[in-house]
Amino acid sequence: MPDTNIDNQRMEKIVSLCKRRGFVFKSSEIYGGLNGVWDYGPLGVELKRNLKDYWWRVMVHERDDVVGLDGSILNHPDALKASGHADGFSDLMVDCRTCKSRWRDDQIVDKGKGKRCPNCGGRDLTEPREFNLMLETHIGSIKPGSGPTYSMHSTGMTGASGAELPPQGLQTQVEIKHPTGEQVALVYLRPETAQTIFVQFKNVLDTSRKKLPFGIAQIGKAFRNEINPRNFTFRSREFEQMELEYFCRPEQGMELLEYWKEERLKFYENIGVPRTKLHVLNVPDADRAFYSKGTYDIEYEFPFGRQELEGVAYRTDYDLSQHQKASGKSLEYFDEETKQKFIPHVVEPSAGVDRTVLALICEAYTEDEAPDEKGKMETRTVLRFHPRMAPVKCAVFPLLKNKEPLVAKAKEIVEMLRPHMFVFYDESGAIGRRYRRQDEIGTPFGVTVDFETLGEKDAALRDTVTLRSRDSMEQERVKISDLVAKITASIR
Ligand code: ATP
After folding, report:
1. Nearest CA to ligand 1 atom 4
2. Is 400 exposed, middle or buried (0-12, 13-18, 19+ CB in 10 A)?
3. pTM of the model
4. What pLDDT is attached to residue 1?
5. Measuring CA to CA, which of 28, 131, 311, 393 is 20 to 30 A from 378?
6. Phi-psi region of 114 (alpha: psi -120 to 50; beta: other; left: phi over 0)
7. Nearest-CA residue for atom 25 of ligand 1
8. Shortest-distance Cα residue to atom 2 of ligand 1
């Protein structure tokens, strides 16, 4: 049985470390914060970039059959109507009349004794009602109440107020009637990156000339007005996804669904999440989207429970068919061998950047015992990131900051390493304290320049440094000229 108290304490320590060391901050914190929205600080942004870069490398650059896309965040409402999001992307919401808290219906405890509010235990709950998770905005400066009347100017079309009108083509399709009778140009912030891929399928196919099976990959922001954002960054209202739409022939769908399972599990192992903490949950028929022939979630054992990191779904030809129908444009693929035209099927591995970053931090967080300056044992906090993911790869220290030749040599080493990795230079405080600071942010290597480096004690040791490993805390003597090769071998 997991001990929830220990797990809660662990999570509290992780959240506090994230803020203290500049991984994650509450968005708009000085204004009281924005619920479900987070900012990544100097170290968080590095960790996130390392994750996204590695995903891109494995999913796009190291394959012949995948190309990339960077689609827009503002999505055409017709596209999200065709995909089913505008009408059906909703969760059931329940309010507790006693403590006024709001919950997703599936979060309300129901163990055969009826539903209870998880906050106050009250049973006075509203009936569940649908809540659409899409975030809306408007384009053009047309706001309800401005009552635009349009006129043509030689420079283009503007509203009577001088406001720019929505682009041509959007006017007939997008403008909706506001209750007051005025026209509003509504667009959605995308709830997933996938739809921009489907909508651009034809353009990508025509320009990349790929043959089935092939994929289109994308990393980018998505927005969901989650009813109850929680568990730190796990459930946010603004987040990033790493999605691949892998198009195939209908008969290949189920086989490819299986193929991606091993690929994706390997990916997590290669960034430092052990297989023992990963679980594949086959989504039962009743819980699957009606168009999907098979879906599984890849889950990770977070301190707050086993939760989804990534969903992999065989979506059949549903999305492309819907967009073909709604747009009136052919999204078919022409098979040159069989001379047949058909709408490709698709398998979609869809992962969350923020959830994976959180898993990496949770997995890396460790406390162990290490001697302090005087040899007394103390608790050491270490983020044992896989070196490939670590925000800072190597810290460089002159043993003493007031010895110019040591400082000069250390700075020379920083310049030598910089083109190959993100390096941090630190000369302040006792060397043991400097090591601890790096352990706490997960820097896998520490290079110390000492008097041996200058050849003062033993000429044979000139131009060697100590290379310290974060995990074992062991130090080895290494030639400066070997440093790049030695470190890059493990951070690639
Ligand atoms: P959940 O059931 O947890 O709400 P989902 O099944 O709706 O997730 P998908 O629509 O499959 O999620 O999205 C794919 C991935 O995007 C998820 O596996 C997750 O990593 C990420 N994701 C989805 N919603 C959020 C969110 N609100 N905050 C952070 N990441 C998210």
Report:
1. 235
2. middle
3. 0.90
4. 57
5. 393
6. left
7. 235
8. 308
